[in-house]
Amino acid sequence: MPLNIREDLEAARRRDPAARGFVEIAILYPGLHAIWAHRISNRLWHRGFRFVARAGSQVMRWITGIEIHPGATIGRRFFIDHGMGVVIGETAEVGDDVMLYHGVTLGGRSLSKGKRHPTLEDGVVVGAGAKVLGPVTIGARSAVGANAVVTRDAPADSVLLGVPAKARARQESDDRRAILQAPDYQI
């Protein structure tokens, strides 16, 4: 998989209204640095250099505050906005055009070997502080609200809100940004 640096820069510029230019994005966006380092660590991981891959991912965690296990599968044009506190587990699978905000966890719920982390299909957006736990699948173009806790699968074009998160179909009138900033909690 090529580094796709230009594609990543364009994805960040499109998704962040505060982005002022490609030089600023390339130098100052820790989410991109974590993704670029992950791509290198992931190659090392799959070539059997697992200690080196893990060491590299830990160095990037110290630098960026973003932890992406080198075994995780990450798609194209992935963007992490702000990023501090993001954790992506070993068996997580992230599709193309996915966006995560700070504090998101794609984590496990079991100590068993095998698939134990989430799958986010293409175009999913996960709001700040949300936790997506276990081997669940979040369907394409879905939105997970801020601080939601997701432990069940959701079909494509869903909105997931609350603790525990409940899925509902996205509606034409849904403002994706409003969903991510002010979820309707039902505890």
Explain this structure.
The structure is a single chain. The chain is α/β, with parallel strands linked by helices and 187 residues long. Helices cover 30% and strands 19% of the residues. It has helices at 5-15, 22-28, 30-46, 50-64, 176-181; strands spanning 67-68, 73-74, 79-80, 87-88, 93-94, 99-100, 105-107, 119-120, 125-126, 131-133, 137-138, 143-144, 149-150, 158-161, 166-169. A 6-stranded mixed β-sheet has the order 3-6-9-12-14-15. A hairpin with a 4-residue loop joins strand 14 (158-161) and strand 15. Helix 3 runs antiparallel to helix 4 (50-64). The longest helix has 17 residues, at 30-46. It is globular and about 40 Å long. Residues 181-187 have low confidence and may be disordered.
Could you list some keywords that capture this structure?
single chain; 187 residues; alpha/beta; six-stranded mixed β-sheet; five-stranded parallel β-sheet; 5 helices; 15 strands; disordered C terminus
Write a brief caption for the model.
The chain has five helices and 15 strands. By secondary structure, the protein is an alpha/beta fold.
Strand fraction equals: 15-25%
Strand order, biggest sheet?
3-6-9-12-14-15
Query: What kind of sheet is the major sheet?
Result: 6 strands, mixed
- Low-pLDDT parts are 181-187
